[in-house]
């Protein structure tokens, strides 16, 4: 019969060989120093790092497992980087400026928008913090600040500034943020097809669009706009819940609905501008 310590070793060894067995437990998703709690199921396709730690106790060796799930392509390249100008080794990522010689650095391949904007890797992120980070980065990275610098610094400032703009615009709105989170998982919505949409849902959208086209007053258009915003808020909560549970297919379907309502929201704004 195996001893208790031997059983611990066997269980840990099996976990290394079959890490998916641990997916039914409640886990913490680590995202560049930030975390969010989520429940994952075996069927969901999350990539992971799996570490085994040996701890010496009074009763002998104990092997503990440390399972760290992460979004695909989320973590930046693990290769250590140096400053292109003075070869100073960087101790954090992303690095926009060298702490030694102060020159701007080129964008780092594989860095996610969440890392660039120093945001929690979650669907319901703090947009005020996002905007503050955006303004801070643009004040320091804007190409106008490098007009008297070398050609290489001007090039890097332009590419960094453009990347910050793209990251900000992507993470600012729930729809583009959610689609980007799916993209990190290797998933995306199919363009130009309604084959996956429920017929009742499509009929409802058609009726809303017809009512908006026939709206004769700002009040009528505003009513449709308020109803649409309420639906978008409801979808935001549902998508956040699905992503926290690791239910990626459900999140994808809900984001598809959000895309339709976001289009209606834009049409409402256009309709209201006609009454001005």
TrEMBL record:
The keyword Zinc-finger does not apply. Pathway: Cofactor biosynthesis; iron-sulfur cluster biosynthesis. One of its GO terms (biological process) is [2Fe-2S] cluster assembly. Residues 112-184 form the J domain. This is Iron-sulfur cluster co-chaperone protein HscB. It comes from Stegastes partitus. PANTHER family: IRON-SULFUR CLUSTER CO-CHAPERONE PROTEIN HSCB. GO terms for cellular component: mitochondrion. Acts as a co-chaperone in iron-sulfur cluster assembly in mitochondria. Required for incorporation of iron-sulfur clusters into SDHB, the iron-sulfur protein subunit of succinate dehydrogenase that is involved in complex II of the mitochondrial electron transport chain. Recruited to SDHB by interaction with SDHAF1 which first binds SDHB and then recruits the iron-sulfur transfer complex formed by HSC20, HSPA9 and ISCU through direct binding to HSC20. Plays an essential role in hematopoiesis. Acts as a co-chaperone in iron-sulfur cluster assembly in the cytoplasm. Also mediates complex formation between components of the cytosolic iron-sulfur biogenesis pathway and the CIA targeting complex composed of CIAO1, DIPK1B/FAM69B and MMS19 by binding directly to the scaffold protein ISCU and to CIAO1. This facilitates iron-sulfur cluster insertion into a number of cytoplasmic and nuclear proteins including POLD1, ELP3, DPYD and PPAT. It is found in: Cytoplasm; Mitochondrion. Signal peptide: none annotated. Pfam families: HSCB_C (PF07743). One of its GO terms (molecular function) is metal ion binding. Homodimer. Interacts with ISCU (cytoplasmic form); this interaction stabilizes the (Fe-S) clusters on ISCU. Interacts with the CIA complex member CIAO1 (via LYR motif). Interacts with ISCU and HSPA9 to form an iron-sulfur transfer complex. Interacts with SDHAF1 (via the first LYR motif); the interaction recruits the iron-sulfur transfer complex composed of HSC20, HSPA9 and ISCU and mediates the incorporation of iron-sulfur clusters into SDHB which also interacts with HSC20. Interacts with the cytoplasmic form of ISCU and with CIA complex member CIAO1 (via LYR motif). Keywords: Chaperone, Cytoplasm, Metal-binding, Mitochondrion. Belongs to the HscB family. It comes from the Eukaryota.
């Amino acid at each position: 019969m195996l001893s208790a310590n031997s059983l611990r070793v066997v269980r840990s060894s099996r976990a290394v060989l079959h890490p998916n067995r641990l997916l039914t437990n409640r886990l913490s998703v680590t995202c560049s120093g930030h975390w969010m709690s989520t429940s994952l199921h075996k069927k969901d396709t999350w990539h992971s790092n799996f570490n085994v730690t040996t701890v010496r106790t009074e009763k002998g060796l104990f092997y503990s497992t440390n399972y760290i799930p992460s979004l695909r392509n989320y973590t930046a390249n693990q290769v250590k980087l140096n400053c292109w100008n003075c070869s100073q080794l960087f101790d954090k990522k992303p690095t926009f400026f060298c702490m030694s010689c102060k020159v701007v650095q080129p964008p780092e391949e594989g860095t996610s928008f969440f890392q660039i904007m120093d945001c929690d890797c979650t669907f319901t992120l703090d947009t005020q913090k996002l905007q503050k980070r955006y303004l801070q980065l643009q004040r320091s990275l804007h190409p106008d600040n490098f007009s008297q610098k070398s050609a290489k610094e001007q090039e890097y400032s332009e590419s960094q500034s453009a990347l910050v703009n793209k990251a900000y615009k992507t993470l600012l709105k729930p729809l583009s943020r959610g689609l980007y989170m799916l993209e990190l998982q290797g998933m995306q919505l199919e363009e130009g097809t309604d084959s996956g949409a429920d017929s009742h849902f499509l009929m409802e959208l058609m009726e809303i669009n017809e009512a908006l086209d026939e709206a004769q007053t700002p009040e009528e258009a505003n009513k449709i706009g308020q109803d649409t915003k309420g639906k978008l808020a409801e979808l935001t909560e549902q998508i956040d819940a699905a992503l926290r549970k690791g239910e990626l297919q459900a999140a994808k379907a809900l984001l598809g609905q959000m895309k339709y309502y976001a289009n209606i929201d834009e049409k409402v704004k256009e309709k209201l501008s006609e009454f001005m």
